[in-house]
Amino acid sequence: KGVGISIAGIVPYLGISFASYDTLKNMLPEDEASRKAAWYPWAKLAVGSIAGVTAQSATYPFDTIRRRMQMNGGAGQDAKYTSTVDCFKKMMKEEGITSFYKGLFANAIKTAPGAAIQFVAYDFIKAMLTQEKF
After folding, report:
1. Cα dihedral 122, 128, 131, 132 in deg (nearest 10)
2. Which of 37, 42, 77, 109 is the one with CA 20 to 30 A from 52?
């Protein structure tokens, strides 16, 4: 349950997160003094965090539908949705657009630190493999 919507959500999530990270990272100063400044690693962590939260926020409706489909008919209850499309239609009709974003703030708090570390680690490993400056 929910595999199709998971796959449909991961592609835009990855695209948005890496595009956001690269765009924001390119706004940081690249001179040697800035790279050695105490604030620079914190700025890179913030950029990674913002990129992750941006991507998660943009693709959050996919996660909401996936979770609902996974819980659909669970714990001995009757299934409320017959398909992912049915889930989308019923949520929109019965609960409105905001139903797709329930829990977004809590999820952003959870996503931010992990995304920050993920992107800084990505840059570090990339620099090690390509002999770039980190």
Report:
1. 30
2. 37
Is the separation of the CB atoms in 5 and 62 below 8 Å?
Answer: yes
C-alpha span between 29 and 27 (Å, rounded): 6
Which long-range contacts link 22-30 to residues 24+ away (Cβ below 8 Å)?
A: 24/50, 24/51, 25/123
Is the separation of the CB atoms in 127 and 119 below 8 Å? no
**HEC assignment per residue over 22-37:** HHHHCCCCCCHHHHHC
Among 70, 59, 58, 46, smallest CA distance to 119 is for 46
Q: Over 70: is that where the pLDDT of 134 sits? A: no
**What sign has the CA pseudo-torsion 93, 94, 98, 102?**
negative
